[in-house]
Amino acid sequence: MHGSPHHRPEHLFSGLAKLVDRLSVPDEDAAVFADNLNTFTTHISNPQKAEHFRGYSLNELARKNTFLDTSYLLLYGAIPNQEELADFQSILTETAELPSPIADIIQQTPLHVDASEFIRSVCALLPLFDSQSKSGAEESVLWQAHKLLMHIPLILIERQRLVEGWQSAKFDPDIHWAVNLAQLLTNRTPTPLGERAFEVLLLSRAELGYDAASHAARLVASRGGNLYSAISTAMNSIPLDDWQEERSLAIEVLAEGNQFATEKWARSLTPGQARKLGFGADIEKESVRLQLFNTFCYYLAEENNMIPMEKAARRSEKLIFELTGLSPHSEWAATRILYYLGIDIELNQPLQLMSRIPGWTAHVLEQLQQGPLVPARLEYEGPIHRYEK
């Protein structure tokens, strides 16, 4: 074993556990389940939310678990004990080196290429360097998942450090996985609160239910595709985040903490622009993710002496709702978490794609047990009995 997770004193979690306990729990009696969906992976209370992972509520996981705990849960069906977690991280760190051709591609790809587009494209190349990629056996799929959980973050880190003009750096096997990731993306060590916020951000998005991306991953795997292809297809099924400029402007305005500037900016938004920033129908208004992210936004803002920015964000939310009828979704708060942590907000979508690898893998493993997906029947509605005169 090449190292064990960096264990933190229990008191670091106690205060945040109390905060999470205050969050409302979804009404089980109001649950709506997707038709013909049978899964052991998530409990889906509506088509936009996955708030239970293999029987554990997101509240419970956010209170005391990590992204690696949650990844293990999704892959193996149980929360790992300390020995299992140490072994899991050891396996990951053993694969913490990119194939040379992939490292060369990172160096040679133009920096203006979107980070999400880059990682999903490189993901499709990874099976070329994995001798087990042709096997659909459960052990081989789990091995591929381990490599993806290490290689996709490494690809993202190396590219971001290139963008920032920083020297290349390696994962430290003696500290926690998420701390490694945060440090290498920012060149600084997160505070205990920042570390916990980053963990919750990642684990909350490890599984988002049976959406189009999960269906795409299941479909590819059920027809013989390897996990790399399934994950790459899932990533490609999510539209690229092409509104970084609008999001950067929003953060810039909010960071001023000026009420007049905030109101002027919020009033200038069209419903379409608000949606791009992370607003939408109020279906997510009471979601656990949104509440968790808002909680961390407040305390991170307090820690960074940026309470005026957080107050400006809340004022803008009320005004945007009054003007457009759209409510903030968790992605709106996720952007502010990254900003408070010193992580480039343009990495929001790439980090989400990376976070979803365990959940997509769980869907793939489940689908492989259930057999091939049957395509929907396509009815022809065009003209018939045509002929040339």
UniProtKB/TrEMBL annotation:
<dbReference type="GO" id="GO:0036440">
    <property type="term" value="F:citrate synthase activity"/>
</dbReference>
<dbReference type="InterPro" id="IPR016142">
    <property type="entry name" value="Citrate_synth-like_lrg_a-sub"/>
</dbReference>
<dbReference type="GO" id="GO:0005975">
    <property type="term" value="P:carbohydrate metabolic process"/>
</dbReference>
<dbReference type="GO" id="GO:0006099">
    <property type="term" value="P:tricarboxylic acid cycle"/>
</dbReference>
<dbReference type="InterPro" id="IPR036969">
    <property type="entry name" value="Citrate_synthase_sf"/>
</dbReference>
<dbReference type="InterPro" id="IPR002020">
    <property type="entry name" value="Citrate_synthase"/>
</dbReference>
<comment type="pathway">
    <text>Carbohydrate metabolism; tricarboxylic acid cycle; isocitrate from oxaloacetate: step 1/2.</text>
</comment>
<keyword id="KW-0808">Transferase</keyword>
<dbReference type="Pfam" id="PF00285">
    <property type="entry name" value="Citrate_synt"/>
</dbReference>
<dbReference type="InterPro" id="IPR016143">
    <property type="entry name" value="Citrate_synth-like_sm_a-sub"/>
</dbReference>
<protein>
    <recommendedName>
        <fullName>citrate synthase (unknown stereospecificity)</fullName>
        <ecNumber>2.3.3.16</ecNumber>
    </recommendedName>
</protein>
<comment type="similarity">
    <text>Belongs to the citrate synthase family.</text>
</comment>
<keyword id="KW-0012">Acyltransferase</keyword>
